[in-house]
């Protein structure tokens, strides 16, 4: 594996980890992260000589996910940053593994939700001095930083994708 391929392999996991950390600490996923993911996917696809049909299919997967997740956002069932991040991740994951990606996001999201609800119930906000981000997690019926689950799902599935495997060879 060339050093260039190694660099390409790091773009996706680093961006996902950065999105998860941003969501945890600020409850926001900046637009620049999904935009960087889609832009870097385009560069990686070109430099790795991804077949045009695979490239188009991956973009179509991302747009389809964006349509569904923005509908969820419109009904206040998902945050806007989460919607964009899931779609940008879908572009990298591709059609062959999209169901696995969505399943892992769901599983990790459920575990994250249970953990935060338990944290809210059993760890009193006044028990210890908490930083601002940890206090925000205590907000009754407050948001859950779902970007963590999205990133975890993406990182669980990415090593099985054709893009990852093609860059490993």
Features:
single chain, mainly alpha, elongated, 169 residues
Describe the structure.
This protein is mainly alpha-helical and 169 residues long. The protein has one domain (3-168). The protein has helices at 3-26, 32-47, 52-74, 80-93, 98-122, 132-136, 147-157, 162-168. Helix 1 runs antiparallel to helix 7, helix 3 runs antiparallel to helix 4 (80-93) and helix 4 packs parallel to helix 7 (147-157). The radius of gyration is 17 Å and the shape is elongated. The mean pLDDT is 92.
Please sum up the structure shown:
With 169 residues, the protein is mainly alpha-helical.
Mean pLDDT: 92
Specify the helix fraction band: over 70%
Rg (CA only): 17 Å
The fraction of residues assigned to DSSP E strands is under 5%
Give me the strand/helix succession.
HHHHHHHH
- Main structural class: mainly alpha
Helical stretch tally: 8
Low-confidence stretches: none
Number of domains in the coordinates? 1
Q: What is the global morphology? A: elongated
Main pleated sheet: none
Q: Whole-Å distance between the termini?
A: 6 Å
Give me the count of strands: 0
